[in-house]
Amino acid sequence: MSGKLGIPLSQKMKKISKRWGVLLFLQLGIPFVTDNPYYYKVLIIFYLYVIFAMSWDLIGGYLGIGSFGHALFFGLSAYTTAILNVKLHWPPLVNFPLSILCSVIIAFIVAKPTVRLKGHYLTLVTFAFPVIVTNIFFAFPDFFGADIGISGLSRLSRSRVVDFYIAFCATWGIYFILRGVIHSDTGLILRAIQSNEAAVISCGIDTSRIKLKMFILSGMFAGVAGFLYAHVIKIVEPSNLEVHMSMQPVVICILGGIGTLTGTFFGAMIVTIVNESLRVVEQYRNLIFYLLILVIVLFLPKGLKWYIDGVFHFLGSKLRGVTLARK
Amino acid sequence: MLFKLLIYTFISGSIYCVIASGFSLVFGVANILNLAHGVYYMMAGYFLYTFFVTTQSMAVAIPLAILCTILFGLFSYFVICRVIDSPFKTLLATFAFGGAISEIIFIIYGVSTYGIPNIIEGSFLLSDVPVVKQAFVAALVALLVLAAFVFFLNKTDTGRAMKSVAQNVEVAKLTGININQVKLVTVTSAAFLASIAGVFYLPLQSLHPSIWMNITILSFVIVVLGGMGSLKGIAASYIIAFCEHATTLSFAEGSYIKNGVYLLLMIIILMMRPQGLFGKDLGPFEVRT
Amino acid sequence: MRENNIKKTLLAARGLAKHFGGLAAIEDIHMEVEKGSMIGIIGPNGSGKTTLFNVMTGYLKATRGEVFYEGEKISGMRPFAIVNKGIARTFQVPQCCKQLTIRENIHLACIHRCPKNIIEEKTREFARIAKIESSLDTLATNVPIGYLRKTELAMALATNPQLILLDEPFSGLTDLECYELAAIIKGVREKITLVVIDHKLKHLMPIVEKVFVLNEGRLFFEGSPEEVARNPEIQRIYIGGEIK
Predict the structure, then answer these.
(1) Is there a single domain that holds both residue C198 and residue C222?
(2) CA of C78: which chain B residue's CA is closest?
(3) Same domain for C138 and C36?
(4) pLDDT tens profile C115-130
């Protein structure tokens, strides 16, 4: 990735709106095209997976901290809103800040030991925290609903269309926030830390503090995704915190290319399509999921999107009669 | 009560020892975290069950199960070897591999828990504490096999090749050691060690397609706490076993939280010593950040 | 009052020691660096030079003793905080972010120190001082070691230090590159105090005023470059015998 510094914000905004204006516009119009409640559900799930994956990519792709327990922030937020909604009958709007707060707090707790660790130990700690928390859930089965979890959550709002726009705005809002972070000096620091943390320290930058802040930001956004999930699926279960859910953002990012924010849209699209189309063979769903990961990791190291981009690039250059160099 | 705890700790700890050494070996020699490590243990159980059901003879089923697990280990190496040089990719690949195998087992064997009959029936009393004979034998066999393996590591050429690759890959290459071959033998040995544990201990436990993750986490924690292939590593296995049993015996919900307890312990230790209990002392680039 | 004659102690080590298990990498080091001076540190391999730097800059925790900077105790502070106090350092293996361009590397060092609108300018200025202006937009991974050293120096300068510790800056460079680097170092010394470790005495001695010699973790000798050159003991610790 070459530097994108020194481009004034106004120019950047123009670039963004040109490329994404079309896509944004198209997506805005979806409620006018369809009425099918199933499609709405799938779309909202797609959006929240995008948010979840972007939150992972912030620390996994840019900072280089591969979190294998991101579902903790996701699931804890979901459980918080579930408990408040089902047991106390509080509306989703009120639960939202509290759920996010829970995610932020747990992100802080996880980040504290994590930022000082490297490599395998770091992975293990991110792996361990969700297990500890699910253990606690199982220790109080009456409160947390044990294996069955908590069901009967209310919807986000009274209308499907409003639900859709909430998810839509959340996704694009978070996207632009993260894009702003990535293209700022902070983003440079993140990429630098991934490249050589000692060099960053030599510049007088407190890397531990930045890692902590980013972890919390990441956890917060994962919490947003978890909150949306809870009110769309209307059930929360222990599996929402477990390793299978933690792998979802990882798979989405490796499909779309780790370290590219826009790749998450592509990856989430594939994962959602695969998940939904495999509902007919419910038995084999997980197996195909794992085999997909295996195939991608073993044979497509740069993420599916890179290869598909490559195909388009090739076609495009052939149409123009030139061979262009690939970035 | 304490004596009971110690007996259980001895038995479980010995089993964990032999499982974790395989994991630790692969980590040390090939520098990969094989998240699918627990699968070898689990597969040994399913192989044993299947062969016993078809042959009705433990004398035939046990060696067959061990052999099949070794071959399975070989197979797993060939699946992973493409990405063996990238830590992140190996994590994903081994995890996906483990998950896929687990799902296949789910599909073939269903969701119910299986019971394998004990090889040796009955129990005896050790100072008022009932000890299942099978469990005791399992622990002894585990320790014997481990001792034999240590002998293999130190006295045979293959074993010493493994040790040298673990210490310094470049130097090992210079002495003409075929690194890929060594990695292959290592992964297969790890599968073998896990199979010994599985074959003797799984009859006492529940056999379920989801047990692999637990075993992998267990091995991981033991290696973090105990370091690589040293006597301290053996101590860590018993410490973890002690934690597990102490938790189970002390609390009503003990069996639900026993994982969490030793994981929490590990996190606390890592917070105090980020390089692990037995890692090297920190150099300038290894964090006093 | 002839204030310009009063020498101020910038950096002081008192009784500094660092043990790794049974091995004493450095022992009983007493050292003072005066503001505005150019100091050299030499000694055979394993004599503790880099360990000394690591302890002084907070990468390692001292087993015994203290480090003072401008009278303030800095031993025990974290490395990034020591950089922000005004001490920059370079490493034996130049530490740059390989995945970033040279420009981004220097920019990194300028963050938080300059207002946003002049960072571009400042980056170019430091690149000019370190003579790497031509390679600003090359990825650091594609650049030879001489350029990496100059980048690291530019980054160090960008942190606005009063003191720079250079660890074997001439290592790995051709003779010509060494002369160039020596000239750059001499160029910055007006405003910055420098302490340089190196083995290439041919390039080090002409630029320093005072030399500390380390041997087996202890301070063996301190004096001017001429005194060091004349001293047969020093020849002996390096090569095991005298040069007749």
Answers:
(1) yes
(2) B289
(3) no
(4) 888 999 999 999 999 9
User: Which chains border B (3 or more CB–CB pairs < 8 Å)?
Assistant: A, C
Task: Give me the number of domains chain C comprises.
Answer: 2
Q: Is C104 in Cβ contact with A203 (below 8 Å)?
A: no
Distances (CA, A) of A218 to A39, A187, A227, B18, B75: 28, 14, 14, 39, 38
Query: Of all helices (H) and strands (E), which one includes residue B47?
Result: helix B37-55
- SS3 state at A31: helix
Strand positions, DSSP E, C113-205? 163-167, 193-197
Q: Which tokens in the block code for residue C61?
A: 């925790």
Q: What is the pLDDT of residues B60-119, one digit of tens each?
A: 889 999 999 999 999 999 998 888 777 788 888 999 999 999 999 998 988 777 777 777
Residue C18 lies in a domain: yes
**CB A188 to CB C83 under 8 A?**
no
Give the tens place of pLDDT for each residue, B173-223.
888 888 888 989 999 999 999 999 999 888 888 888 888 998 999 998 888
Q: Do C12 and C59 share a domain, yes or no?
A: yes
Same domain, C165 and C75: yes
Interface of B with C in 259-288 (CB under 8 A): 281-282, 284-285, 288
Cβ–Cβ of A127/B276 closer than 8 Å? no
Q: Is the CB of C88 less than 8 angstroms away from the CB of A194?
A: no
Instruction: Select the residue of A120, A140, A207 nearest B33 (Cβ to Cβ).
Output: A120
Containing domain of residue A206, as a range? Answer: 31-244
Residue A177 domain-assigned (yes or no): yes
Chain B interface mutation, best of A65, A147, A294, highest count of B Cβ atoms under 10 Å: A294
Residues 6+ apart with CB under 8 A from C129: C154, C157, C184, C187, C188
Domain that includes residue C111, residue range: 94-159
C100 and C201 share one domain: no
